[in-house]
Amino acid sequence: MNTRTDSSTDFTPVDQDLYAAAFQLLDPDPTPAPARPAALAAPAQAPLTATAPVRLTGPVEKTLTDALTFLDTHGWTRYSLINTEGARCSIGALRAAAGSRNAAYRDAGNLLLDEARRQHGKKWQAIPAWNDSHSGAQVRSVWEAAIRRAHHMNI
């Protein structure tokens, strides 16, 4: 790369009046517009704040959560769908929470049974048999884990 270091150049000095005339043609009214009165000025923007994204609860998580709330409110039982005091087994709570045997009911039941098998062995073929063979604390542990899984799976 060649760089000239001497002071002589081949440039012609610029005529400042010609420069001004050229800019006048590009911007015929160089005077700034008067400032608008404060009452007519654009409203101030509210500062942006970071907010956490809204996460919607999926139907399976909602069914499991509502069923566990039902068990907490009405009680848990073994050996019957509903006992004389109104307590329910795990299937009874799922039915009450889902309202019908819909997809959320089926998927929540499958997730609950899968979690029961994870915690208590693969031998369990159905929720009622598992429910009737474990303590309230063991059943609750499975419910809570199933709810966490549904939450993480966003279902």
Strand content: under 5%
Number of helices, where a helix is a run of at least 4 consecutive DSSP H or I residues: 6
Number of strands: 0
Q: Whole-number radius of gyration?
A: 37 Å
Nearest-integer average pLDDT: 83
What's the helix-strand series?
HHHHHH
Percent of residues in helical segments?
40-55%
**N-end to C-end Cα span:** 65 Å
Question: What would you call the shape?
Answer: rod-shaped
> Describe the biggest sheet?
none
Could you say which structural class the secondary elements and strand pairing correspond to?
Answer: mainly alpha
**What are the low-pLDDT stretches, counting only 5+ consecutive residues below 50?**
none
Textual characterization of the structure:
This protein is mostly helical. Helices cover 50% and strands 0% of the residues. The chain contains six helices and no strands. Helix 2 (59-74) crosses helix 4 and helix 4 (103-120) crosses helix 6. The chain is rod-shaped and about 105 Å long. It starts with 15 loop residues before the first helix and ends with a helix. The mean pLDDT is 83.
Short description:
The chain has 155 residues and is an all-alpha fold. It has helices at 16-26, 59-74, 90-98, 103-120, 127-132, 136-153.
Structural features:
155 residues; mainly alpha; 0% strand
What is the fold's blueprint, element by element?
Layout: H1 16-26, H2 59-74, H3 90-98, H4 103-120, H5 127-132, H6 136-153
